[in-house]
Design brief:
By secondary structure, the protein is mainly alpha-helical. The chain folds into two domains: 1-109, no CATH class; 111-282, Orthogonal Bundle (Farnesyl Diphosphate Synthase), CATH 1.10.600. The protein has 15 helices and no strands. The relative contact order is 0.11.
């Protein structure tokens, strides 16, 4: 069964992602809408990464999704049909969804990023815009919460990039770490492609770790007190990925050996502690 024939709920269950775990704390209607949004993100990402499709076919399919979003016309797809009602319902621009599609579409042909600024533009589309849509669905009052969403998006995406260095190189041939920073630390691209990490690689990953850490701090600083209670799902996501980041650093980035995860018990503890904090938040 392909993602094109699955409902949003089935896609979320199949993905077994940390985001799906965090959504458990949301009220029923907002949870259903976030599931529809998450399924949208998952499907467009799967289209871009489909190993059986040609680049031309991937681009054609994503262009079709983008046209449907721009026109607001349901195409009869279980995921996109549910997603298209959300911009009007929550008051966010459909252009945000197009930015997400453009971001994942760049993965079809782009496998390297020369500078951090170039990578940041990619991360904004595939992560920070996801955050902007999410806070609209969660419900926020203070416009400053948008800065929180943007910074947390960067933090989560950089954590993903650090964690998935080995998997990205092995499965897709992509290296998301900026080429200029590889040169700065004297890391050869072949070390990554051939899974041969050096001390130089570890030092570069420490540099990437600190950058991600700074974005988590910036997100926390930007979150207004009055919106903390409604952002509990994103706070759970931030807590899970922040701990993954710390685990990566503690274990000295075993990114060529395994995909770093938290145990289910650890995630349940994070969920419970954040629900308790949200319950007593003013």
């Amino acid at each position: 069964m392909t993602s094109g024939t699955l409902s949003p709920e089935q896609i979320v269950r199949r993905a077994k992602s940390n985001l799906a775990f965090a959504l458990a704390c949301l009220p029923k209607e907002r949870r259903r809408d976030m599931i529809a949004f998450y399924a949208f993100c998952r499907v467009v990402d799967d289209i871009a990464d489909d190993p059986k499709a040609s680049p031309a076919d991937k681009e054609k399919e994503l262009n079709h999704w983008k046209e449907c979003v721009e026109k607001g016309e349901p195409p009869g797809h279980p995921v996109l049909d549910e997603m298209l009602v959300l911009p009007q319902k929550y008051g966010f621009p459909r252009a945000w969804l197009c930015e997400i599609i453009d971001g994942v579409a760049s993965d079809i042909s782009k496998t390297r990023y020369e500078t951090f600024e170039e990578l940041l533009g990619y991360c904004y589309k595939v992560a920070s815009v996801v955050g902007l849509v999410s806070i609209e669905i969660f419900g926020h009052q203070n416009p400053a919460t948008k800065d929180y969403a943007i910074n947390l998006g960067y933090a989560l995406q950089f954590t993903n990039i650090i964690r998935d260095v080995g998997q990205d190189a092995r499965e897709t041939g992509r290296i998301y770490l900026p080429q200029s920073e590889l040169r700065k630390f004297g890391v050869l691209e072949s070390e990554i492609m051939d899974a041969r990490p050096s001390e130089r690689f570890i030092k570069m990953m420490d540099f990437q770790y600190q950058r991600a850490r700074d974005y988590y701090a910036a997100a926390q600083k930007a979150l207004p007190p009055e919106d903390r209670k409604n952002m509990v799902a994103s706070e759970i996501m931030g807590a899970i990925y922040s701990r993954i980041l710390e685990k990566l650093k503690r274990e000295r980035y075993p990114v060529f050996e395994k995909r770093c995860r938290l145990s289910k018990i650890h995630k349940i503890w994070i969920l419970g502690s954040h629900l308790i904090k949200a319950r007593f938040a003013r």
